[in-house]
Amino acid sequence: NRPASGLKKPVGYHLDLLVCGIFIYPLCAFFGLPFPHNSTAPSLIHEMSLTKYDTEPIPGGGTRQVVSKVVEQRWTNFMIHVLIGCSLALSSVLDHVPKAVTFGIFLVMGFSSLSGNQLFERMWLWTIWDRSLYPRFRFVTRVPYASLHKY
Questions:
Q1: pTM
Q2: How far apart are CA 126 and CA 128, in angstroms?
Q3: Nearest CA to 60 among 112, 109, 144, 132?
Q4: Residue 25: helix, strand or coil by DSSP?
Q5: Which of 23, 39, 86, 141, CA to CA, is 20 to 30 A from 64?
Q6: pLDDT in tens, the chain (151 residues)
Q7: Which residues pair with 56 in a beta bridge?
Q8: DSSP 3-state assignment of 16?
């Protein structure tokens, strides 16, 4: 829902959370079951996969990717949930997939969604000792270095 994404209907990407909140989570809470999925990482990766970027130069050197367009559609969200439903029928086959493979998929999804997250970009600045090598983002150039690292 970042304004830079320029979405016309930003709420549509959270409809899966609404469906889970109305239908699935109350049942899980009533029966004491764990929640079925963490929708944050898949939602971010889904939005990133539908985003088209342009590269623009940063004053002072370097380049950055700027969102030029996001293809807004609901078909993939619907198909994701259809495939989740199909996985119930294939549970006997999915039992043979090692848990390490499943954990690895979610680990890759989590790490790939970190790029573009301003919190992690600021934390990455702690590893750069030479201030002249800092990227020329607005949150770096407009704030004193001491305040930047307090955040």
A1: 0.47
A2: 6
A3: 132
A4: helix
A5: 39
A6: 666 666 676 666 667 677 778 888 888 889 888 777 665 556 666 777 788 888 888 776 777 778 888 777 777 777 877 887 888 888 888 889 999 998 998 888 888 777 767 778 778 878 877 777 777 777 777 888 777 777 6
A7: 64
A8: helix
